[in-house]
């Protein structure tokens, strides 16, 4: 299956990969050399244990592994939901029910039964956590705060707050929809760099050109000349390459 070059974004049948992190793909030696100065300070600066764990995760999420099958089924379900949007019932992030839609007894009993059964031993819930989960299931999430017109992802207001985002390892951060190049209709290329980035499994690493005012960056963080954004096609001053993977302004 063709993979995209991390620099020029073209598909390459015979891809090269970084020999240290084994995760960054290039179409040619020229692209690898062009990216090395930045790459060695970001992805390759991570400890070897991180890269080992990352490789293991990629291995076990392949289509022929159980987790890979689960991801494939989940993607198919979301594709069907994109074609046929659902009536709002619960927040897709925290799973709490929206206002006026209480959890049914069957749903509540099922979740608590899982926690109290064999899965509960594996999860090793600490004292008091069962009560917290039980209360959380019955808690009202309020009204739908954001709903993506493209992928139909819905979240409550709490899940949109920056302090509740964190950096998700297995799935997307709480405030991120399932679209690859936009978050709830706002293109990532006009957003400030943040960890609300792609659909979790496929982070966005394209051009960014957020308005300087309010972005958290000064003019020196932007390229000196305007050019065409490779994501949206708008002519703008884009952020310099070293800022494209910032977690947020001032944080690498």
TrEMBL record:
It comes from the Eukaryota. One of its GO terms (molecular function) is zinc ion binding. PROSITE patterns: ZF_MYND_1, ZF_MYND_2. Keywords: Metal-binding, Zinc, Zinc-finger. Residues 5-44 form the MYND-type domain. This is MYND-type domain-containing protein. It comes from Hebeloma cylindrosporum.
